[in-house]
Design goal:
Mean pLDDT: 84
Helix content: 25-40%
Structural class: alpha/beta
Radius of gyration: 41 Å
Largest sheet: 9 strands, mixed
Number of helices: 41
Strand order of the largest sheet: 7-6-17-16-18-19-20-21-24
Strand content: 15-25%
Length: 1498
């Protein structure tokens, strides 16, 4: 792998081997001690070098002056022989230059890692089932439980403080599913558990370390929130050399009997040397199976050619015409059949397209191969009998059509299927003309497959150049370990071998896997003169060589290393030579070469007899290379790359090096660029891709002056390198592996080399590491994927991963964005071993890689985030307001219709109290039905008319006074399931002068979590009595209840199931309408239990507003599918019908669990015009009935009667859900205009409600980036970064709304974002809290503007929103003002100085992978925590981590700190369908979520 020097070995202080031997023993011992200290990390690099220099000073010759070293920028550091000796070109026989030892890289990495103190990184947590094998839990209890320090430099302001709103002195309710006994609290009341908090503490400690390019902490106030562009470092190295001049190879020699074409050669040898061996095939045991002679190759090729042209036909037309393309599908174990098929096609003037054997329908890259075959118009595939039998078959017995492939006819080329041509048939052997000879496939960096066409002259010229460069002679034996279908395996083992009548021994990959030494044994057996291998084959043979003693490699004159251009090939070459020199391998025999599919062979080191300069090596600075500059071994000893030359340019070729990007300017001599070659022996084109062909095969390099360097076009080879001294070519990487991060270039192979040098290697497989880059937030990010060994421990693997990150950071000065380990044998493989990189990348981006370990480091990598925002001081009030304008805009103020003006002969207006209204209705219309309650079957389970309700209420009142001995003003908790009982007891309390408090009953199957909430509301509301049913009464005092709460402290409990009939009762008359009517308790999304006080006046005003807005009369029917315990749900269930006299069809939402269509059936059955539901109900219908609309239609469900369907909510309208609902049920007659939303909150249950009249709700599109800066900026639909926002219904009669600045409390202008303030007769009068500290929160309910209209008393809703005057007209003929609610202030996250709404981040996250069912986000000490529910299999859990991190970075410019993957249903949701993010946060910190995986992003 890429060699790196660790310990200053290349300074002139390095003792030469001779000096080293003459050093005194004690000095050598001291040096060894120093080495040990450095490797153990007991001494710094600097200290080591100092001490070493001191020890060696007396023994070293005078050091050359530094200025002399600088003269030659590329100093060749290892010239093996003195210049004088022309023939003695061999390297030193006993020892190679120590400076290039193959273990140097490992040393460099060790030294790099020694710089990092053992720092504790938080290890990801896994659920046991996800572990490959169980490992010790990494838990370290924290030293203290205080909240960790802030690490981002921008403290998250307490949002309560921001708004001068102290939190409601309220109670954190323990969420469902959490046991609260194990909750610890931090100093600021955050419950934590030692394990999670300690890991977050570790994460914060890691993140506190400075990042490499530090963020400049200021913000340019600009809408476009420009991503920070990396400015080039003024000190970065720049090329200083002269412009290079093109380099020409030696001319192609004239050969007397050189054939006019390749087929002429075949004919010549087939006729004159028929018995001469051409190719020997081996089986998996290494035994020769068959030797193909030149005579056999000639006759069999003719047979096949004849058969293809004459015996294959469709509808009496020949199937193939000369020039048609034919696929060659042959396994790597059958070179003989392939060779016959290849030459058979050439003889028939068909164009062979060799491809891999498809094994399954899902082979890596198979779809792209299919695309290539389709674009080449291939209709026929040649294969062997055995291979055809092994292909996957359809039920008809035919070979299946693979995904993306064209329909193919499969033809088996075995003997019985081909026919002997008649005596008078002879193939035409033409001179090499410009027709295409064959097409070789190549996979690009992005994974697309291209076909490279090679013409007959190019094929022949390439054979000529290889014969001359390698000195091939007739009848030589050559051992080919490569894939014979393409690349060097095809060029040497199938084409050139035939021109020069060589004997090829083909070693199949399957044999190499069983016996890695097989190729060496065959070289020995056949006395082969040449072997064609990859560095992998050399590496494998090293691992197996101990078993073999009696082999000799002395016959080899050339060992061609075809991937010699790979930076890591040098270590394989060195190690191989060290071991096999003793077995007769001569050092000068190793010949690395550089080639590419487009340029074919570009350069090769010549065999020693050809009298060329000795081989060279360069030790180059990594840092210089990243700036495309060549610097020989700078001071940074850790980060150097050692490369070997790949010899001289091919005969007859002209080579130059051009800039990688932009115009192909010639490089300077000390600059790295792409190698371009102009010769007759390169590929000609990409088949069917003229544009790409022009860019690659017809490049015209230009000089700095702008003139072309030559009239000939050049071919880009995709090799990156430079020309060194002695005209040796050096390759430092390939375009495919190039990753440009922050303007610096890194090579994937170098990064792999560093990862592999991190010891110990017992956690991952050596050859199975993929490195690639993905584009995230306008820059490339490096991803490393490796296969984890099955026996690797969780903790060991994690340690290895963290060390890899540190090593790459230290050596390449670049951060790794993501490091993933996948289970053994799960990475997509290339056909002959190795990793299919583009397929791995594709799977990573699609979330289909299924890693078992992931480590993300966005904090250290992502350095181009926009600058954090610093708030600008606001303009003072005096300069802003003029009349009714603020800063040049109309003040954002709006109101509903004026209640006083509306004459609607409303009889109920005469009464101040709801109990009076009920009495009046019981007298006036005693039998008028008010309520119908439906059960799950859709039948009516109970009803109540005005008189029935009145009588039941009276009985309850008598029981309260006589049995309960309650006094007027006492608080009574009503614990009932949704139904008539709840409504009757509510009025019973009003009749007795008591204050009702509606409480959701505990869930019998989940008492442990639901009962404490009931207990808390009862205690907080100071209820002196509980009214309930007998069944619930038993539940409150059951054994299970004892485990959950203290049952002895319940107040008096009365059941109302069998109350006796009573005499008439004197109904309580409150002295003033401002007295308390009822308490409304609800848990906010922040987990805060807040009760608000509703006076009699507010209650009546609320009912009147709803009546007017919805046009409710006694003749109307409305359907309600809401919970009746708080907010507008309580008002619609218990109050509205009594006030307006309409009939309410009540559908308890719980019944939908057993019958999803219950609500819609009721709406259809009763032909309801107005219906109310919650988001949870709408979601259940959308998900549960989405595919059943046809069934519903057959059941005669028709929704065309619905005029308005309102979703009751205290949040931003969920536009996606409402639109899906409308779309799905459009088929059942639901009008697209019917669905709308309402808006209410704690201070006012109903601010907006669509109602029956007025314009349809409008939708606007906002720029999300502006929204983060608390600005409203309208954009067009479909704009990037746009957010659609729907109006929250029409403002109710009697309600006034103003938008106020959260800090200055001044009014804002139209379309400006601020807090929504509301003034109305039905505002609640205040919080009812534990301690009754009403004064503390007084300003939530009565606050005034700081300027402008300073008289009106407003209530603060705690929601951000804006008003916008539309072009529509409302019922009164005025222009309509629309209120848009953006989100709750309490919920917003303040990160990097900007305000984010969790729902926006969650929407992005849910979109990132199909298996994310739900998502919730919250912050903890400025870390963004994302919790995702996984609906797929657990093996997908870790796929989500990079995808979630990517999407939040791309869409919101935020770095995710922690990703938590949990089971579906873990994110707590309240009855309104809102996420309880704070409960989730508490559960996470208390380690109660039982997550599948927790990833701590570094």
């Amino acid at each position: 792998m890429a060699e790196r020097n660790s310990t200053g070995l290349l300074m002139m202080l390095e003792p030469t081997p001779a000096i080293a031997m003459t050093l005194p023993v004690e000095v050598r011992e001291k040096l060894a001690e120093l080495e040990l200290e450095l490797s153990e990390g007991d001494i710094t690099q600097k200290g080591y070098e100092k001490k070493r220099a001191k020890l060696l000073a007396p023994y070293t010759p005078q050091i050359q002056e530094p200025s002399l070293q600088k003269e030659n920028r590329i100093q060749m550091l290892s010239q093996a022989a003195p210049p004088g000796s022309k023939h003695n070109k061999s390297r030193a026989t006993n020892t190679r230059d120590e400076r290039f030892r193959s273990d140097l890289h490992t040393e460099a990495v060790h030294a790099a890692l020694a710089k990092y103190k053992e720092r504790k990184m938080p290890m990801p947590s896994k659920r046991r089932s996800v572990l490959v094998q169980s490992s010790v839990e990494a838990c370290t209890p924290p030293d203290n439980h205080s909240a960790p320090p802030d690490v981002t430099g921008l403290l998250e302001h307490s949002l309560h403080a921001d708004r001068d709103r102290p939190p409601v002195a309220s109670v954190k309710v323990v969420p469902r599913g959490y046991n609260h006994s194990s909750v610890m609290e931090t100093a600021d009341g955050v419950p934590v558990n030692s394990r999670v908090s300690s890991k977050i503490q570790q994460l914060l400690n890691t993140l506190k370390r400075p990042k490499r390019p530090s963020l400049r902490e200021f913000f340019i106030d600009d809408f476009e929130e420009l991503v920070d562009v990396q400015q080039p470092d003024p000190n970065q190295p720049k090329a200083e050399g002269n412009q290079m001049s093109p380099l020409a190879g030696e001319p192609l020699g004239v050969v007397t009997n050189w054939p006019p074409s390749l087929l002429a050669s075949l004919q010549r040898w087939g006729i004159t040397q028929p018995r001469s061996p051409c190719l020997t095939a081996l089986d998996n045991a290494g035994k020769p199976v068959y030797t193909l002679t030149y005579g056999k190759l000639w006759t069999r090729s003719q047979k096949l050619a004849y058969t293809l042209l004459n015996k294959l036909s469709t509808r009496n037309e020949p199937l193939l015409q000369p020039g048609d393309r034919v696929a060659l599908v042959f396994p790597n174990s059958d070179p003989v059949m392939f060779m016959v098929a290849f030459y058979g096609c050439l003889l028939a003037e068909l164009i062979p397209v060799p491809i891999e054997v498809p094994l399954t329908r899902k082979d890596a890259g198979s779809q792209q191969i299919g695309f290539l075959l389709g674009s080449c118009g291939v209709t026929l595939a040649l294969t062997t009998d055995a291979c055809q039998k092994g292909l996957p078959k359809a039920q008809t017995g035919e070979v299946v059509t693979f995904k993306g492939w064209p329909r193919l006819l499969w033809f088996v080329t075995d003997g019985k299927h081909v026919v002997k041509p008649p005596k008078d048939w002879h193939p035409t052997i033409r001179e090499a003309n410009n027709e295409i000879a064959y097409i070789e496939y190549k996979t690009s960096k992005e994974g697309s497959t291209m076909g490279i066409t090679v013409s007959h002259p190019a094929m022949l010229a390439h054979c000529h150049a290889l014969t001359q460069a390698c000195g091939y002679t007739e009848a030589e034996t050559i051992c080919n370990v490569l894939d014979f279908k393409r690349d060097a395996g095809l060029w040497h083992g199938v084409l050139t071998s035939v021109v020069t009548r060589m004997h090829v021994i083909s070693i199949p990959y399957s044999l190499m896997k069983v016996n890695p030494l097989s190729w060496i044994q065959k070289v020995h057996t056949y006395k082969a003169r040449v072997a064609v291998v990859k560095s992998r084959d050399m590496h494998w043979s090293l691992l197996a060589q101990r078993d073999q003693r009696d082999i000799s490699l002395s016959s080899l004159r050339m060992l061609i290393v075809t991937d010699g251009a790979n930076p890591w090939s040098i270590s394989s070459c060195d190690a191989f030579l060290n071991v096999f020199q003793a077995r007769g391998l001569r050092p000068e025999v190793i010949c690395p070469c550089a080639s590419s599919a487009e340029g074919m062979t570009v350069a090769i080191r010549r065999p020693p007899e050809s009298g060329v300069p000795p081989p060279g090596k360069a030790v180059l600075s990594m840092s210089g290379l990243s700036h495309s500059v060549i610097r020989v071994d700078t001071e940074e000893k850790l980060s150097v790359l050692t490369v070997q030359d790949v010899g001289q340019v091919m005969p007859g070729a002209l080579v130059c090096v051009v800039r990688v990007e932009g115009t192909p300017y010639l490089c300077q001599t000390d600059e790295v660029g792409e190698i371009c070659v102009s010769s007759g022996s390169t590929g000609v084109a990409y088949y069917g891709l003229p544009g790409m062909t022009k860019n690659t095969f017809q490049t015209i390099p230009v000089r700095a002056s702008g003139g072309p360097i030559s009239g000939r076009p050049f071919t880009r080879t995709s090799l990156l390198g430079f020309v060194g001294p002695d005209n040796l070519v050096f390759i430092v990487g390939r375009m495919d592996g190039l990753m440009t991060v922050c303007g610096r270039r890194h090579n994937a192979d170098d990064v792999v080399a560093t990862a592999l040098a991190v010891e110990p290697m017992k956690f991952v497989y050596r050859g199975r590491i993929a490195v690639f880059s993905v584009s995230v937030l306008h820059d490339e990010r490096i991803v490393v994927v490796a296969e984890q060994r099955p026996d690797a421990s969780e903790e060991g693997s994690f340690q290895w991963m963290s060390r890899v990150l540190q090593a790459i950071d230290s050596i390449h000065q670049v951060g790794v964005y993501c490091l993933a380990l996948v289970p053994a044998n799960t990475m997509p493989k290339a056909p002959l071993g190795g990793i299919h990189i583009s397929e791995t990348k594709q799977r990573f981006l699609e979330g289909a890689l299924h890693p078992c370990n992931v480590l993300m480091c966005p904090h250290s990598c992502v350095t181009n985030l926009p600058k954090p925002r610093q708030k600008q001081p606001e303009v003072g009030p005096a300069s802003m307001i003029v009349g009714n304008l603020v800063a040049g805009k109309r003040i954002a103020q709006a109101c509903g219709r004026d209640v006083a003006q509306l004459e609607d002969n409303d009889q109920a207006r005469k009464f101040l109290y709801m109990q009076d209204v009920l009495q009046w209705r019981a007298q006036a219309t005693p039998d008028h039905p008010l309520f119908l309650v439906l059960n799950a079957k859709g039948t009516v389970s109970s009803t109540a008319s005005c008189l029935q309700l009145q009588k039941r209420a009276e009985r309850v009142a008598v029981a309260l006074i006589e049995k309960g001995r309650l006094n007027p003003g006492d608080h009574v908790a009503l614990v009932y399931p949704p139904g008539i009982d709840l409504i009757a007891t509510f009025y019973g309390c009003l009749y007795a002068g008591c204050v009702p408090v509606t409480v959701r009953p505990p869930h019998p199957q989940n008492l442990a979590t639901t009962l404490p909430t009931v207990k808390m509301i009862v205690e907080v509301s100071k209820s002196v009595c509980i009214l309930t049913t007998q069944a619930i009464m038993k539940l409150l005092k059951s054994k299970e209840a004892v485990a959950a709460v203290d049952v002895k402290s319940w107040p008096m409990v009365l059941d109302t199931d069998d109350l006796p009939r009573t005499k008439r009762l004197q109904v309580y008359k409150p002295p003033t309408p401002e007295m308390l009517a009822y308490l409304d308790f609800s848990v906010s999304t922040m987990g805060i239990l807040a009760g608000v006080k509703m006076s009699h006046a507010a209650t009546s005003a609320l009912c009147r507003s709803i009546k007017l807005q919805c046009e409710l009369y006694p003749s109307r029917q409305i359907a309600i599918c809401l919970d009746p315990y708080c907010g507008l749900g309580l008002a619609l269930w218990c109050l509205s019908s009594v006030y307006s006299g309409h009939q309410s069809i009540l559908v308890p939402p719980l019944e939908l669990d057993s019958n999803v269509s219950l609500w819609l059936s009721a709406v259809s059955q009763y032909k309801v015009r107005i219906t109310f539901c919650s988001y949870s109900v709408m979601e259940m219908c959308t998900k549960g009935l989405g595919t059943q609309t046809e069934t519903l239609r057959l059941r005669n469900i028709n929704l065309s009667c619905v005029r308005t369907c309102m979703v009751v909510a205290e949040e931003r309208p969920r536009i996606t859900l409402t639109q899906s609902f409308s779309k799905i049920f459009k088929d059942l007659g639901l009008s697209p205009r019917a669905v709308s939303t309402t808006f209410g909150c704690r201070v006012n249950m109903a601010v907006c409600l669509q109602g029956m009249s007025g314009p349809d709700p409008t939708t606007v599109y906002l720029d999300m980036r502006a929204l983060r800066h608390e600005r409203v900026r309208m954009v067009e639909r479909g704009s990037p970064h746009s957010l659609s926002l729907m109006e929250s219904g029409k403002i109710l009669p009697g309600v006034k709304v103003v938008i106020a600045n959260t800090e200055t409390k001044g009014p804002l202008g139209d379309s400006h974002l601020g807090e929504v303030w509301v003034s109305s007769p039905h505002n609640a009068t205040g919080y009812y809290t534990v301690y009754g500290e009403d004064a503390v929160h007084a300003d939530h309910f009565n606050t005034k503007l700081s300027f402008g209209d300073t008289q009106t008393v407003w209530a603060r809703t705690g929601y951000l929103g804006f008003l916008r005057r539309t072009e529509l007209t409302d019922a009164s003929g005025e222009r309509h003002d629309a209120l848009y609610v953006v989100g709750s202030l309490d919920e917003t996250l303040e990160l990097r100085g900007m305000r984010y709404h969790p729902i926006d981040i969650e929407t992005s996250v849910i979109r990132s992978h199909k298996s994310i069912a739900e998502c919730a986000v919250f912050t903890w000490t400025n870390l963004l925590v994302v919790v995702v529910e996984l609906s797929g299999s657990e093996q997908e859990a870790l796929d989500l981590v990079p995808l979630v991190t990517n999407v939040v970075l791309e869409d919101h410019y935020l770095i995710v700190g922690v990703v938590v993957v949990v089971d579906p249903g873990v994110i707590p949701i309240n009855s309104r369908g809102e996420k309880q993010r704070m409960h989730l946060r508490d559960g996470f910190l208390a380690d109660q979520l039982d997550p599948i995986y927790v990833a701590y992003n570094m």
